[in-house]
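User: For documentation purposes, I need each entry recorded in a consistent format: the amino acid sequence on its own, followed directly by the corresponding structure tokens. There are two entries in this batch. Please keep commentary to a minimum and don't merge the entries.

Assistant: Recorded as requested. Entry 1:
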Amino acid sequence: MNAYPKITMITSLIGDPTRAAMLDALMGGHALPAGELAYIARVTPQTASSHLSKLMKGNLIAVEQHGRHRYYRLASQEVAELMEMISAMSPPVQIRSLRQSQEMEKVRHARTCYDHLAGKLGVALTQALIAKGYVAIRSETEFDITEQGDEHFQSIGLDLTTMKVNRRSFAKRCLDWSERVHHIGGFLGAVITKHLFELKWIVRMDSGSRAVRLTEEGRAKLHALYGITIEDLG
């Protein structure tokens, strides 16, 4: 008898193109209704309902009820990490249309990886924080904040000194699938990204897309604080 977990059950769920498209859309960190997921995956509402049911049974997604409406989200941070890891290991997508090319350019430039920042912007910010001495590589899987970094983050409104305790993954080194370089994930990545949204230095783009963009204020602030330029973002 095989006592190991049923890996094929999860891989078969993720491996279906329709379900993979839905899971990728939920990597934006927002809960989305079935109709929007059906539109993104280009299937009928009835087909989408069947796929969503299978993903729920596989514990890959969860549902939230708001009045008469149901919204779907990834079941956990672990599911998001699994999706990003698979993306990093997968071959590049074959671009077949101008629209697909434009969307790919957007998500490669800057996107949310569930709840933290990824793409060229996420990598550029991570490398700048390391270069400034605010963040250091702790191990093959983790970053850490330096004393200088604690002071810096407090100066921009983030007091992280009390947030490190009992965090299983405080500052995960997350391999960026488009840049093939690590960006900051985990709790720290989520806190930084949330703060950037609150400051309106970054804003979300189209509904159903993981792509985000720098505002003019955000561009000026990131350049002043970290020396990030347009050239760093390609």
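Entry 2:
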Amino acid sequence: MEQKTYTGQPVITLNNGVNIPALGFGVWQMEDLNECENAVLTAIETGYRMIDTASIYQNETAVGKAIRNSGIDRDDLFVTSKLWVQDTTYEKTKAAFQRTLDRLALDYLDMYLIHWPYSDFNGAWKAMEELYQEGKIKAIGVCNFTIKKMDELKANASVPPVINQIELHPLFQQKELQEYNRENNIITQPWSPLGNGNAGLLDNEELKKIASAYHKTVAQVILRWHLQEGFCVIPKSVTPSRIAENFNVFDFELTEADMNTVRSLDTGKRLFFDPEDPAWEEKMLNAVADI
């Protein structure tokens, strides 16, 4: 397999041999389509080559438009989207995938993920395996899967997932799940890697001290920590200066003492949704999403 490289940034090799940029750009909560398109364009101009969207974000059309207008060859980008809960069955997955391709106006996806471990995710995975074997997806993975759900998926899978995209930031590090992913050659991909702008995190005195020593911002220190932990990270911003700041993290390296300082901030408490919460699962299963 020919390995793709991405200028000016490190890559991570997934368990199927595909390379993914270690730092990408997320578009969760970008509901204004013009704002989303401009943010993605700015990100690509800045140097980002991995774009992460999802059908439920309802901004795939804007992402696709930005890709077409970026002047960058499609094959030089790594594009990810996700299968929503209502389509997580064998019967519905392929049609949902095609709708995503149509909205993005692309011929293939670099990666397709099951968004939540609900409904018939084993059936959906089988359909995704078939799309993968047909070459329509370069890599397949999951989001928000616990160890128990990962074990269930692996027991029924022919193709192992390459990535588990989970809530992970200094305040909630999921160390047991991190270790499980490493042992199973699955890359951990944190979503909301900066804690969604949590003031207690970005104003942390210990992190500010580390940032000052490197002439960097706290956000840059946190992203550098993610990268050095071996994660594939997808910060998001609609502000051009922040988009550039988040990408400017390849010219310094944290010491092990610095890494341990960040590791020590783990509270074990989520800021967002718990995939094992029955109320959240019921809400997701009953949500009506016209996608």
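Summary note for entry 2:
The chain has a mean pLDDT of 94.
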